[in-house]
Amino acid sequence: MHHPTSLPLDAPPSSPAHDPDQDLAAGRSRRAQHALIDTEPGLPGTVLAAAAGARKAMLVPVVTALAIGTVFVAVYLAAFHAPSARHQPLGIAASDRVAARTELALNNAAPDGYTFYRYANAEAARQAVTHDKVPAALVADSRGTRLVVAGAQGPSTVSSLVAAVATAEGEGKTVPVQDVRPLAAGDSRGLSIFYASFGVVLAGFLFAVSSYQIAPRLRLAARVISMLVFSAASGVTVALISHTAFAAIPTSFAVVTLLVGMLAWASAAVAGVLLRLFGPIGMPVASVVLLILGNATSGGILPATFLPAWLSPLASVMPPAAAVRGLRGASYFHDAHLAGAVLTLLAWTAGCLTIQYLMDRSATRRAGRAGAKPHQTAVQAPSLQS
């Protein structure tokens, strides 16, 4: 009878077949050595799912924050560390002799510092100041010499013009100041409009970031509805605080609501399209564009005539600058710049939403050609940890 042959007890076992699962587990083990260790128990799964490797988690926040901080410090110091006027408008209603003497003295003190506008009489100069044609006007007539100013332009602007005119008049001479457009009692420093605008721009930026993080594949129509709700709520809330509670912005409740709401919508649209265009680096790009460049050129701290030549052109086109001009004009200068502010904010919002719509259409066509569903080709939202 045939018996099966037994293997010796000390014979080595045969090599097992190759197991792909073991290789996968070994790879995960090697990567785990470099993974960020979870030292905070109880974190939600969605948060843990977005966790990066240890090296990335430590270096990316450092680089991102340092870059944004550096840009902020560089822009604000360049703009405001030693501001000087460039083509600052100044009205003059005086005789040719007095006007020529004043213009010569100011041009000698600051070449290209001022742009002069002649007016026939004191009333014409006053109308120019109250309609924001010029922030101040030197008037010399039978009632004497005086500087007609709009205090609503802000203490920095007014004080610089008062000092310049006093210097032009010569040592020992003082020029009386007549404020025909003083600031509201609730806004003694003239910064309320700037602070309201800055807060809304910040809120619009955070809205866009959280919207793309929570729902990166949300349809554009739904995202627009969300923007509208956010913008309307922002307008009403800021109007209740700045207009009703503090009486700091002395225009109508409806105008504050409209301009602030439009600024919120434009800010959210700008941040959203930058996140869509640039992916993971869209957030720092949006923060530089909106929070740094936008607010530095808004005119809330100093007018555009005091900004460096490379920065001042942005003051005529950026959303925060448009909102500040519109609110200031509606509050103090017979609605000057209000229509322009509305059109500028509408243009930013419509332009950004159009870009997003075209990008979505392009992604949908590419998905159709690849035989995939449209939602499978959606761009992944940028993460705060990217």
Describe the structure.
With 386 residues, this protein is of the alpha/beta class. It folds into 2 domains: 88-179; 192-377, no CATH class. It contains 12 helices and 5 strands. The protein has a 5-stranded mixed β-sheet, with helices on both faces. Strand 3 (136-141) and strand 4 form a beta hairpin. Helix 4 crosses helix 6, helix 7 packs antiparallel against helix 10 and helix 9 runs antiparallel to helix 11. It starts with 19 loop residues before the first helix and ends in a 17-residue tail after the last helix. Residues 5-11 and 375-381 have low confidence and may be disordered.
Strand content: 5-15%
Terminal CA distance? 73 Å
User: What general outline do the C-alpha atoms trace?
Assistant: elongated
Topology order in helix (H) and strand (E) letters: HHHEHEHEEHEHHHHHH
Entry keywords:
2 domains, 386 residues, single chain, alpha/beta, 5 strands
Short description:
The chain has 386 residues and is an alpha/beta fold. Helix content is 57%, strand content 7%.
Describe the secondary structure blueprint for this structure.
Elements: H1 20-32, H2 45-49, H3 54-80, E1 88-93, H4 96-109, E2 114-118, H5 122-130, E3 136-141, E4 144-149, H6 155-169, E5 177-179, H7 192-214, H8 220-245, H9 253-278, H10 282-296, H11 319-332, H12 338-369
